[in-house]
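Lab meeting notes turned into a lecture example. A postdoc, R.K., suggested we walk through two folding results consecutively so the class can see how the record format repeats. The first protein's sequence and structure tokens come next.
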Amino acid sequence: PAPLPLMSEAPQLLACLRAAPEDEAPLLAPDEMQAFLDTYTRSERMPAFEGLIKTFERELRENGSRHGAMINALAMGFREAVAGCYPAHDVYTTVRRMFKKSFEDDELSAREGRARPSRDEFVRGAQWAAAQALLVDPEETLARLNRDDIALDERVEGFWTARPELSAVRQFAQSRLIAPWALFGAVLARSLAVVPPRVVLPPLIGSHGSVNSFVALVGPSGAGKSVTRAAARDLIQLKLPGGGRLHAPNVGSGEGMVDQFATYDRKAKEFVGLRTRVMFTVDEVESLTAQGGRSGSTLFPTLRSAWTGDSLGFANRDKTKAIPVEAHRYRLTMIVGAQPTKAQPLLDDADGGTPQRFLWMPTTDPNAPDVEPAEPEPIIVGPWPQPKTGFSVSGVETAEVALVTTPPDPKSFVVLAIPESVREDVLAQRKKVLRGDPDANPLDGHALMTRLKVAVGLMVLNGRYDKVGDDDWDLAGVVMEVSNRTRREVEKVIACEAAKSNQARGEAEGRRELAKAEVLERDGLARVCDRIMKKLKDVGELKRSDMPDFLGRDKGLKDDAAELLAARGEVELVRYKAKNGSPTWLIRPVEKE
């Protein structure tokens, strides 16, 4: 074994030891523990709760110790509960559930040499962690949590002041009493509509990429999602070919989206293009997910194809309805209003990559000024420089519309230049996925592409039409941080709603169980329950197969008695399969706290 380093050679360890309290607090008594759980009930920073789960999972993954993972998660969680971040009771129940579930992992059980927790292991761990949490200054805990938020807030301020047009977006939002980030999302969707369909991203993975983009404006009903779209229309003056206006219909079905770009001319007996640019709008995500959740719906697959710029259209016996919209022949953006509690179906499509394709922008402004600033001048976006070759039809827009149903020639594409560092980041992530790296999430590729689309939007908003710069990429990184934080908050709101629903359902089930228990108790089970509890006091736990040995003629009541005790909350039933595969259980008393 290697020699232990001197303290002078391990400054980080020395700093940790110096920061540790000189005296470790003794375990809280059961009544003190209950008082602790009842006292610290504030929930002022619920998004931080996600770190509790990640701490347990990380410890379990890296160290393989269920006890260590449990202790570290409790220690962190109770410290943050004392600081008012989230209820201590939530920490207790969540870590207890994860700890118990970890014993379902046979590989961990074999490694640790045990298949169940020690008696009182969790309870004593919680009593210890709570006692230590009371020694920590809550302000220190909040300061640690605030470091990341403060750093992001500083980057956000740097974002708004980085360019005149970004400052104008924030100022316009505050003058109209709407959220700057929500307005930015709507502005981005409008600005990208200026980019012609033939303008593509480099073929980094598979083929050329598209700047087609989706934005979710996140907030409760009445938060200003609809008026934000209208404000973006007032702020951004688009210069489209031929002086056209941006078409902005509501989303229906996948087929309905295709119909906005092309149709079948029955007189000419051929497919014809209608337009190349469409910004779809959805007032509330519930209507989008309801449509997408119908049996046989093509909406979500169509959205995923549209995001990548792939061809759209569906096979149909009636060829007049099999309308083709070819790859990179259309520009599609979409703005969706999303109440957090209604966004679950959208998040449920994570395996398909749908939520990763959205930019999630909040409709709140914690820094809204008391006095509204003056309204800035509108921002002119476009026109995109006209191509010198490649179109034989008079007028650029007319030519592009005529080509909507015609397969593209990659030679006609205008490929945007991107920084070499961006190319390296995208390729490095993709190579990890190809090589089967367990830490590589294939859907992270969508996040990088979303960031690149944002960078293109920032380039266009800045009045440039040639290449994405390093500054565009860096600013897009701040946007993605805000988007990721907003999406996590949506997930947390949904999780809290689900927990409330589960609690209500559990309480109803509990009432039914208690009613059943009262009936069973009238049938003479009290005597058998008393005998079981006395036996458990001596032996700690009993298997079902142990019951006949001491119950004698009452052995036929063992199952009903065990269920009755479990319904009362006096015992815990651990169900498992015997060696012959038959279901069975063991019973152990529940420690009172």
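The second example is placed directly after the first for contrast:
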Amino acid sequence: MSVDARAELEALLQRLAHQLRQGDSHGAEGLAARSRRDFPLSAELARLHGIALLQLGRRRDALTALHRAAELAPDSIEVQCNLANLALEDGRPELAIERLQAVLGRAPGHPLVLQALGVALMVAGRHAQARDTVIQALRAAPRHPGLHLNLAEAELELGDTTRALTHVQQALELAPRLDAAHALLGHVLHAQGRAADAARAWLDAERLAPGEPRHAFQAARMLEESGELAEAAAGYARALQHAPHAGSALSRLAHTRRRLADWREQEALTSRLHEAVEAGQHGIVPFALLPEPFDRALQRKAAETFTRPIEQHMAPVREKLAFAPQRPAPDAPIRVGLVGDGFGEHPIGRAVAGMLTALAELDGLELHLFATTPDDGGPIRRRLAAAAPLHAIDALPTTLAAERIHALGIEVLFDLTGYGERTNADLLALRPAPLQVNWLAFPGTAGAPWIDYILADTVVLPPAHRADYSEKVLRLPRCFMPVDTDRMTAPPPGREACGLPATGTVFACFNDVGHIGPQAFARFMLILREVPGSVLWLHAGPDGADERLRSVALGQDVSPDRLVFLPPLPRADELACYALADLVLDTLPCGAGTTAADTLWAGCPLLTCAGDTFAGRVAASLLHHAHLPELVPEDTDAFVARAVQLGRDPAALDTIRAQLAHLRTQSPVFDMAGFAADFHRAAQTIGTRHRIGRPPIDLDF
């Protein structure tokens, strides 16, 4: 090549690189395509053409260009790193590792290649190797902030948050304005249980890169976890403004606004959510859809869309772990595990404590509990630990937690977290147990290939609803939800102490404010208007929710004074207050769960209406199995009419109270020994089927 041609090519390459840096992908692609006709043997020109094509979404053409660049310059580090990155994007980390290791053979100790190899090893779940690789890179480039961040990420995955924090801080010393360093600091602090500090770290990242929606989103997540719901909603709104098609920000914004009783844009948010789910938009969190007026089919579609990228991301790690199937002796007890974030003073822990105590008395199962949150030191945690070995896996990285479960030979693993704030989706996608069951925490289909069964009953999941569940269905002959009967109670306070009037009907709704919604609240206001002198008793909401509800009441011709709010109380005192309610009203489309059980245990009449989805049918199941079908009207109009009729008839309410008092000793709803026997039979049946090589099937017990 002549000197002039070489100079012309160099100028072209510089111009192309500038266009790519400026985001002019179309201009760069056109210039590269034309120039390659004049310089067909330039590997760098082919490489830059490939990058431009990638930015335009023309992946196949980009691969052709990059492979041509590799043919022209097989020793080009840049080309091999580009191809390795593409392999990672395609979910083929081992191919990327193989390619990068070959490059290292030609350029030993090259820090950029080592950094790329470390990333590939992380994606493949080979975290210890990734850490060692990045340490090698740091020897050559000790002041490279990105390498310190890579090392911090590896240490975080290996469960050493102290070392991870040290390396993030070193990166921040080298590059204090690097937003990625502040973002990773947020991850590390969150792993240490410091949600409020993590929120500040992500807010710092957002200030440094205000156009990056992930920083605002993660800050909002931490603010929500810290109980700062108004600030969290503002963060989700900022994230959505920068990324209008971000399903995660949209769903969490809609959910947080509901929790705040902030319904100003609720109709628009619901409409956007509906369109997003229909379009298969990624990131929409299934639990955020439970209070939305969506049918079962749409909920299943949302769950399946949510789990698809998790499966894709975790598949390489699962393949690397390659858990071998256990071969227990034929007469060995079935090993059953329960994994969840509620093994403490939490609705789930309180629900299962009595059942697990009874289950421990039965032979044939070996029970293990796996807690994903720290020990709160409370009585529920102690009861659970007394019922079965309780393994604390809250501080373990996902892979190590999966290895712990698998090492214990768990054959049937019940997920008691679902898609809540601390979802076990990543853990369960690694398949630590051959059979995995969705139970109790998420009232709907998991939509996940790693969940084999859902534990339900004929009311929450009748045969007509079967098509909308991805799992095989296990139906208990009783309500699927246990009700602990060993509860601490306190003497009921007087009405005046709770801010209630001395006379008049006390309607109550003790569901989370986020479940009430404008339609359910409108029904409540209609009931108050039809029952003179009545009041509505609600749990106090966060960040001004009470005042917003009072304002809505006034707009519907109900005096704000007729809304009374119950402040947070110790558990025993809260349950004692339930006895003062004359009639508890349920909500749709997402109704009461453990709250309904608490209400019935307190001897208080509960009125519900069976909804279209699992989440709207739990209270109906409890009442059906308590033999109180008259408290489950057929539709919302009948619900309002029945509430008004009962609100005007204190004698009828007294009759129901007397019946409930009798049911506490007679109803299968409160029979934990019976529940344990049914649960035992279900777990033993599916475990035995698996041992003899039979696939999961629908089963009614």
